[in-house]
Specification:
Layout lengths: L10 H6 L3 E5 L2 E6 L3 H10 L2 E4 L6 E4 L3 H8 L12 E7 L5 E11 L2 E5 L5 H11 L6 E4 L4 E7 L3 H8 L5 H6 L5 E6 L2 E6 L8 E7 L3 H12 L5 E2 L2 H10 L35 H7 L6 E8 L10 E4 L2 E11 L6 E8 L8 E6 L2 E8 L15
Parallel strand pairs: 3-13
Antiparallel strand pairs: 1-2, 3-9, 4-7, 4-8, 5-6, 6-7, 9-12, 10-11, 11-12, 14-17, 14-19, 15-16, 15-18, 16-17, 18-19
Enzyme class: transferase
Subunit structure: The glycine cleavage system is composed of four proteins: P, T, L and H.
GO molecular function, one term: methyltransferase activity
Amino acid sequence: MSEESKHTSLYTRHKAHGAAFTDFGGWQMPLKYRSELEEHHTVRRAAGLFDLSHMGEVLVSGPEAAAFLNYALVSNLAVIPVGKAKYSLICNAEGGVIDDLITYRLAEDAFLVVPNASNAPVVAEELRVRAAGFDTVVEDQSETTALVAVQGPAAEAVLLDLARPEDAGTIRELKYYAAVRVELSGLPVLLARTGYTGEDGFELFLGSDVAGRLWDAALQAGEVHGLLPCGLAARDSLRLEAGMPLYGHELGLETNPFEAGLGPVVNTKKTDDFVGRSVLEPLKAVEPTRRLVGLRAVGRRSARAGYDVVVDGVPVGTVTSGLPSPTLGYPVALAYVESAHAALGTEVLVDLRGRPEPFTVIPTPFYRRETLAGPAK
């Protein structure tokens, strides 16, 4: 355990629950509390409680906040209604992905930008630099903000047990990729309904100084619903089944949005110039040289990140994430492959440490729950 790793405000509670820790993005985070398979299935069947306080929270406010974000990010943030959210990317001038993030519009002149843990300081600084010339303020609130997620089919029921009666209807009616302010267990919370698991779920933003009280209350209220605290191992297997990218695996500075399948996120119809536009706009009209695809193993062995994808003895791509799917019962993976081998049904081999194993290109997400209130991240 690195002495330089940061701890969230819930660290002592994780220790008390017997969590095994791992360093993630410079933070000591719970990897699991018990079997990662049990935690995975708990989220699919009931509900899991996650500490996501390592994520960043950057408040962008001021008269030109919307115009600024349209310049800083590749999407059209100015059209988001108050109370709604949008998944987007922040790219560099060369079109590489600095981070993928979700932005919530809190008011006409205020937005909350949520970057990934390891990228939070980089994104906050990049936004500050890009804000030059705009009448806007960029405030990194990551240190004083905690983020807790409740994910799974019982997530709504857990929150209703924590809510005031007058907030019950608001919670039930909250749409996917939307956010609202409520009280949970007597604490003011910005409640969002997004998620990274493929299940229904909520994110709870609140002050880090009171997060422990909400964590304890959620565990107590969730007991009758089968809720358990869950770690990053389950979060990773859940997001992979849901076909969602992880920065540093499917996304990075060497990746452009189109090869990652995120071309629709790049809005070239907006009149605003944006960082990377001169490179990204021409790419929208051409076939990428490689594509991110889903793979299903023909056998039982799993592909792992970094393994070569091979056709006719020649490497044509690289696995970015892979594991045995607990829900589906067979191994799945995400991989970048040359576009000539990206069509659904294409048969490839993955070099599993010197032993080629057959895989087939299949659609993503690998897992989709029956009802979803909006597009997946």
